[in-house]
């Protein structure tokens, strides 16, 4: 009886080892060419985030200076900030004094090389949402000028 049990266990062990080493019929053996790793195409390096805060850039400082004139000055103070051929109908801010004024961002325009876009957010009174002063700034021979400004809610 012991011999029969030992033979059966040996046979089971051999079958198990043979099954581990074989490939199921629906799968084929892989060749070295099939297992070779494909090297991915190099990805471009990500553009580094700007290290300078928006308010520390030259365009950002100019945007905040214009915002100060816009919010607290009159047309006499605004006109020198505008490009010579300003065509958008200049106006001065005439609502309740803003609060929570923050230069949200400033960046070079994708459309025009010499133009920078800036957005300054603020609150009016006790509103629960922000209003945005949107600016296009142009640097020319006479320094920075505003080529467009307007409010957005």
Protein model, in words:
The mean pLDDT is 80. The chain has a four-stranded antiparallel sheet, with helices on one face. Helices cover 28% and strands 27% of the residues. The termini are far apart. The chain is globular, with a radius of gyration of 35 Å. Strand 3 (131-140) and strand 4 form a beta hairpin. By secondary structure, it is an alpha+beta fold.
Give the helices and strands, then pairings:
Blueprint: H1 2-21, H2 32-35, H3 58-72, H4 75-78, E1 98-108, E2 115-124, E3 131-140, E4 143-152
Antiparallel strand pairs: 1-2, 2-3, 3-4
Descriptive key words:
153 residues, alpha+beta, Nuclear Transport Factor 2, Chain: A, four-stranded antiparallel β-sheet, 4 helices, 28% helix, globular
**Structural class estimated from helices and strands:** alpha+beta
Q: Poorly predicted ranges (pLDDT <50, ≥5 residues)?
A: none
Mean pLDDT: 80
**Sheet bearing the most strands, described?**
4 strands, antiparallel
CATH architecture of the domain at 54-152: Roll
Please provide the ordered H/E string of secondary-structure elements: HHHHEEEE
Distance between the termini: 92 Å
DSSP strand (E) fraction? Answer: 25-35%
Could you name the CATH class of the domain at 54-152?
Alpha Beta
Computed over alpha carbons, the radius of gyration is 35 Å
CATH fold topology of the domain at 54-152: Nuclear Transport Factor 2, Chain: A
Q: Number of helical segments?
A: 4
User: Total strand count, please?
Assistant: 4
Strand order of the largest sheet: 1-2-3-4
Question: Could you estimate the helical fraction of the residues in percent?
Answer: 25-40%
The 3D shape can be described as globular
């Amino acid at each position: 009886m012991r011999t029969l049990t030992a033979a059966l266990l040996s046979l089971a062990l051999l079958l198990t080892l043979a099954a581990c080493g074989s490939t199921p019929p629906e799968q084929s053996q892989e060749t070295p060419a099939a297992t070779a790793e494909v090297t991915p195409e190099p990805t471009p390096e990500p553009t580094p985030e700007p290290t300078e805060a928006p308010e520390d850039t030259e365009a950002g400082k100019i945007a905040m200076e214009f915002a100060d004139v816009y919010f607290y000055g009159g047309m006499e103070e605004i006109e020198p900030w505008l490009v010579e051929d300003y065509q958008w109908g200049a106006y001065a801010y005439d609502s309740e004094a803003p609060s929570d004024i923050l230069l949200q961002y400033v960046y070079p325009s994708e459309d025009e090389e010499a133009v920078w876009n800036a957005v300054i957010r603020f609150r009016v009174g006790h509103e629960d949402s922000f209003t945005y002063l949107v600016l296009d700034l142009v640097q020319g021979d006479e320094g920075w000028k505003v080529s467009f400004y307007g409010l957005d809610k």
